[in-house]
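note to self — DONT lose this again. spent like an hour looking for the file last time. sequence + predicted structure for the chain T wanted, 362 res
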Amino acid sequence: MNREMIGAEAPRAGRNCWFRIFSIELLGFGLLFAGLWRVIIRAGHADGTGPDGGVTAVLLALGVAIGLLGWRLSLRYRNRTGYARAQRGTRQTIKYVAVTGVTLLLLFPALWMLLSSLQPSYRLMQMPPTFTLNSESGLANYVKIFSKPEYVRYFINSFITAGSTVLTVLFISVPAGFSFSRYRFRGRNVILTSILSVQMFPIVVILISLYTFYMKWNLLNSYMGVILADTTFALPLAITLMKSFFDTLPRSLDESARIDGAGRLRTLFRILLPLTLPGLVAVGIYTFLSAWDDFLMAMTIMQTNAMKTLPVGLAQSFLGEYAHDYGALMAFSIAGSLPIVLLFVFFQKYMISGLTAGAVKG
C-alpha cells in the first residue's frame, strides 16, 4: 500500500516541481519584457523624459537572473517522474493559446469592418470606439449600396473585367506553359526570361505611356483596355506556374499518347489538361484576385462613372471632400470581399495543391 501511494505521489511531485519552475521562468520573462518595453519607450524620448534608466536596468538584470535560475532548476529536476509530461503539456497549451491569439488578432480587422458596416456613420467617429450592436444597428448601409444602380454597376464591371482576364490568361498561359515545359527550341530561355522581366517594372512606371497608347488605339473607357492591361501583368506568373506544373507530369504520358496516334493539341487538351486542374484553379484564382483588386489601371483607363470598377468606385463614392460615409464604405468593402472569400472557401484545396505541385520541379 505504501509503495502504491509513493508511486502515485511521484508524478504529482514532478508536476508540482515543473509548475514552480515554470512560474519562476514566467516571472523572469515578465521582468525582462517590462525592462525592454521601458527601453523602447525611453528611446522614443530624445529629450530624456522617458522612464528612469536605473529602474530599467534593474528590471533587465532581475529578468535575466531569474530566467537563468529557472533554466538551471529545470536542468536539475528534469529527470523527475511526471516532470517531462507536465512540461510537454504546458508547452502544447502555450502553443495553442499563441495560435488562437494570433488568429484572433488577424481576424479582428475583418470583424471590426463587419460590425462597422452595421452601424450609422456618426457612431463610427465616436471615441472610444464601440464594438457592440444596439437599436440603431442594422442593414441600412447594405440597402443603401444595393439600392443605387451605379453601385451595382461597379460590381458588374469588376466581374466582367476580372472574369474576362481569367479566361484570357488561361487561354494564353496553358499552351505557353506546355510549350516551355515540353519542347526545347532556340531562344527558349531568352523568351522565358523576357516574359518574367515584365514583373520587374512597377505599374506606375508605364501608366503614362500606356495612357498615350490607349488614347491612340481608342481603348480608353473600355473593358478591352482594362482586360489587356491586367492580362499583361498576370501572364508572367501564370505562364511560370503552368510550366512548373506541366514539368511535374511524366513525359511517358506524352509518349503513350503519341504511340496511340494523338497529336500535340490532343495530347494537351485530352490527356494532360485534366491532370492540371489544381494548377488551372491556382492560376485562375491568382488572376482573378489581381484583376479584382486592380485600382491604378482601372482608374486611369475608365473615365466615366458607368465604367468604373469596384475599387475605383469604392474610393470615389464614399470618401468626400468634407464628409466620409464610413458605414456605407465598410458595407461596400464587405460585399466586395465576399467573392474572394467564397473563392478561397470552395477552391482552397485545389489552389494549395496547384501552388505546391507547381513548385516541386522546374
